Task: inverse folding
């Protein structure tokens, strides 16, 4: 079993900042990539940012220069620093980990339960 536990969501005014954290635990052999996704009401889930084990990052165009993803490999933890938040950033944010649970096994995706981020205007 693999668990991803997110924290750090909440309510913030436009222009403010929040930092999300996600810690993975359980039967983990090695983590390939981790990332953050979000889903706003009535919309599909979309990728926000991803980071590989080597530190390579990718961002959605809508968050570039405002959000920063980082990772503490030793702690199996990923962070998302969100600055200059806008009302359109309001969504449930989900943590994702793409990992192996055993040597030679398949890569699988695991998801956190989600954390609400609400940005007021």
Result:
């Amino acid at each position: 079993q693999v668990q991803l536990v997110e924290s750090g969501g909440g309510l913030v005014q436009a222009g403010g900042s929040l930092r999300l954290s996600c810690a993975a635990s359980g039967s983990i052999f090695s983590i390939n990539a981790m990332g953050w996704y979000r889903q706003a009401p009535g919309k599909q889930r979309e990728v926000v940012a991803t980071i590989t084990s080597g530190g390579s990052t990718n961002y959605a165009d809508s968050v570039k220069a405002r959000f920063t993803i980082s990772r503490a490999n030793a702690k199996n933890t990923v962070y998302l620093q969100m600055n200059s938040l806008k009302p359109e950033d309001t969504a449930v944010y989900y943590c994702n980990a793409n990992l192996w649970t055993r040597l030679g096994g398949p890569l699988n995706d695991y998801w956190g339960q989600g954390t609400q981020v609400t940005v007021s205007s």
About this structure: The radius of gyration is 14 Å. The longest strand covers residues 30-39. The chain has no helices and eleven strands.
